[in-house]
Design a protein that fits this description.
With 316 residues, the protein is an alpha/beta fold. Helix content is 32%, strand content 10%. The protein is built from ten helices and nine strands. The strands form two sheets. Strands 2, 3, 4, 7, 8 and 9 form a six-stranded parallel sheet that branches. Helix 7 links the parallel strand 5 and strand 6. Helix 3 packs parallel to helix 8 and helix 6 packs parallel to helix 7. The longest helix has 18 residues. The relative contact order is 0.23. The C terminus is likely disordered.
């Protein structure tokens, strides 16, 4: 009987430890402070794919730039052909959940549904995401537990273009995660844009031109940005994090801030571009049965839960 009780206790400890594992969070200040050998810049686009994404892809190809797309599952379901083109052209695809709900306002079950549906919208196309950006940059401990179950790292941003509100007059003057303007020739980091706004897509040539003039030496995907850390310790293993059910793999348990309330948040507007109708934006396109493999990416073991200083906005 004594041995049986010991086995039961060990089993309970194992179960509790598995379900308390939290996904890694990469916040804005951490991104900005990473030691890099050159000034790398990452263009990230949220909320798509949309009817404007093909134009964006043409522009990125013309400038030999690769980007990272944080896609909504419901948009992927309606624009599968565009999502497949994004991956086929060498860009990185990550999850932005399914329907752009504020995860902190959802219970565990609803959060799981949002993350799971967004994840499977991509995996159904053969695209295996490594990163997830929560809408508005909002998350809590439940979010991190669920993200870990799907092998996802939670990613924010270091520089917010606020293109949902208006286009900046000068992209070199965008504030960093620490709230300062970069010195000439020092621009770098992870930039937040949205490919559901035509004005943003139209302005991408200027974005690239001004960021290069401000110091960006190379545009890379977020995974490449993480892999380019200059500090060789600890080694960077280029693999996806495992599902937490595997007890043989070391996991990272992070402290959680009691509050990460959004700033400047207002009710979520329609994700449609200004002049599009719901029918135009959500028109489902015929699909091809195509499968792609995504390179796996790993992250350094040490991290911080410092949230991005970027203001949360109505259309992330």
């Amino acid at each position: 009987m004594r041995n049986f009780r010991i086995l039961v206790c060990l089993f309970l400890v194992y179960v509790l430890s598995v379900h308390c594992v939290l996904a890694r969070v990469i916040g804005g200040t951490e991104m900005e402070d990473m030691p890099l050998d050159e000034n790398l810049c990452v263009l990230t686009f949220d909320d798509g794919p949309s009817i404007f994404t093909p134009q964006l892809l043409d522009t990125l190809k013309a400038h030999d730039v690769r980007a990272t797309f944080f896609m909504l599952g419901r948009m992927v379901d309606n624009y599968k052909d565009i999502a497949l083109r994004v991956e086929a052209e060498g860009h990185e695809i990550a999850s932005h959940t399914y329907a752009h709900k504020n995860l902190k306002r959802l219970n565990y079950t609803k959060q799981w549904e949002e993350i799971e549906r967004g994840y499977h919208s991509l995996t159904d196309l053969g695209i295996i995401p490594t990163f997830m950006r929560p809408p508005y940059g909002n998350y809590d401990e439940r979010t991190l537990q669920i993200a870990n179950e799907f092998g996802l790292h939670v990613v924010l941003w270091s520089i917010d273009s606020k293109d949902w509100k208006r286009l900046p007059s000068d992209y070199s003057k965008l504030a960093s995660a620490h709230g300062h303007i970069f010195a000439p020739g020092e621009m770098h980091g992870v930039f937040l844009f949205h490919d559901i706004h035509k004005r943003t897509v139209d302005d991408v040539p200027r974005v690239i031109r001004e960021l290069k003039a401000a110091g960006c030496t190379r545009f890379v995907t977020f995974g490449e940005y993480m892999a380019a850390l200059a500090d060789p310790e600890p080694p960077l293993l280029l693999t996806r994090i495992p599902r937490s059910q595997n007890p043989s793999i070391p996991v990272l348990d992070l402290p959680i801030r009691e509050s990460l309330e959004p700033q400047d948040e207002s009710p979520v507007p329609s994700l449609l571009p200004e002049k599009d109708t719901l029918h135009d934006q959500l028109q489902t396109k015929p699909q091809e049965n195509v499968q792609y493999n995504l390179k796996s990416i790993a992250l350094p073991a040490e991290t911080s839960l410092e949230p991005s200083s970027s203001k949360d906005t109505p259309s992330f």
